[in-house]
Task: structure prediction
Amino acid sequence: MTSGAAMNSAGPAVDEPSLTDHLRHWAAHRPQQRAFSHVAFPDGSSGGLHRTLGWRALDARARAVAARLVTVASPGERAALVLPQGLDYVAGFLGCLYAGVIAVPLFGPELPGHEGRLAAVLADCEPACLLTDSTATPAIRDFVRDRRLPDVPVIPIDQLPLERDGAGARGEGGGPESSPGSGPRSSPEPRPLPDDVAYLQYTSGSTRSPAGVMISHANVVANARQALDAFVADPRTSTTVGWLPLFHDMGLVLSIAAPVVGGFPSVLMDPADFLRDPARWLRLLGSYEGTISAAPNFAYDYCVARTAPEDVDELRLDRVRVLINGSEPVRAGTVERFRRAFAPAGLAPTAHCPAYGLAEATVFVTANPLDEPLSAVACRADALAEGRIEVTTADDGHTESTVLVSCGTPVGQELRIVGADGGVLPAGHVGEIHLRGPNIGLGYWKHAGLTAETFGFGAGEDWLRTGDLGALHEGRLLVTGRLKDVLVVDGRNHYPQDIEETVQSVVPLVRRDHLAAFGVTRPDAVGEELVVVAEHRRDADPTAEDGRAAERAVRAAVSARHGLRLGALLLVPPGSVPRTSSGKVSRAATRTRFLDGGFGPR
Result:
């Protein structure tokens, strides 16, 4: 891979079969093979309760959803998925694709703290119906009424009848030599065009209000293929194990799309079950050969903190093939702590795989090559603030450095780094990450202006502006932060995640990865000053003096390490810092709440 200003690993465009073509194929040729499993933990038992569907049964359920959908929605209308994580969610999503209805993967109103976002997204996407299950139906109806949303059909898909003698139950899909996409001429579903919208992936809203990215049938299959190329050495001996929400881009592609394209099993668990006891996820990882999973950086620290050493001996992590670390800055210290904690359970030192992605690119963009150890680069902090990558060592006299973890190389797409003037930057220079490839979405639903700002740049007018900052170093991507999050003081860039790391390293009271650093206009209206809102640990009850002592420590550390003046440090109770529906800290929402006085007096 070249170390130049742009990287290109995109191959020629291929007219791929759709997801439902692949589903039909596996239903025909592997009808009884385990396809999707959901593991519930109703009573805290270690093994959990497993429910499993084979490929034929899954296909039958998806077709049953499609048969009901065509009675209430026309092709191109939307169906919102507002049901719990599980097998019905998978069938509902695939059923939308069979019916030609645009799926909108969402969540139910029981997700705490996100009722407003759910209402806003439902108002934006204007669904023709809501797909749920029988247990959630009353709450959904109440939510729609209380929020004065349009009264549309609410369909409990777990009660839909299956046509036992129909195409789905028989597993139609052609003879033994057929390929995905081939099937009987009598197949009732119209095959979608590659550029038809398959679903709307609403962004997490970490830097702005959520917007629905239009993902085409071709986009999702292309990105599933890219994920297979990056993470799946052999589909015949692979299983994905995931707790990430299926309404999240990474959860949807890794736990549904990639297994359907690759024809290998997927095991699901609820995110809340992971948070109650992360050892449940770790045990599932060791229950299958060649397991592949993904989690944001904080989850790996959470596993270390919440897993007793005596429990590590019971794990079988030698079976783990890949643990993808994405969705937020990957911290080298986190990876090392996780590796050290679970090495006794057989975890391979190369299992951890830093990656980079975003909803506008369906999800996956770059990944560290399989079986290669993590690559961390210590950069001179002063050079980084000026937009350059300059590697430092302990012996060269530069005491302040920022460690960046390589997120690898692009998979099946092109990547370039662009400066503020629109020119492509050489390796070692920080700029905005631009992308081009078959996985790039079609734009934002009903947001033509935002689409024009983000999609279609460059000479070919087909580059995506990601809004993320990064640089190429030795042919690999280093992600430095979000463009909208960067604090610019005296012409120097300061990345909030670096400031947050400084704060949590000098104040033991702070909950790791539960804080937000942002800039606000100074009282004299000249420039910006730094504000940090940080949750204190659950086992702490800080006094006013504790707060003043923490602010003094942070002020000194931020001044010394970043050359910034701290305007305020607020220690707030656990759960106070806003997070997106995918679990990331929302600096934009935290800043807004601070300016509105939502955290109380300064």
Remarks:
- The chain has a mean pLDDT of 88.
- DSSP finds 18 helices and 28 strands in the chain.
- Residues 346 and 532 are 39 Å apart (CA to CA).
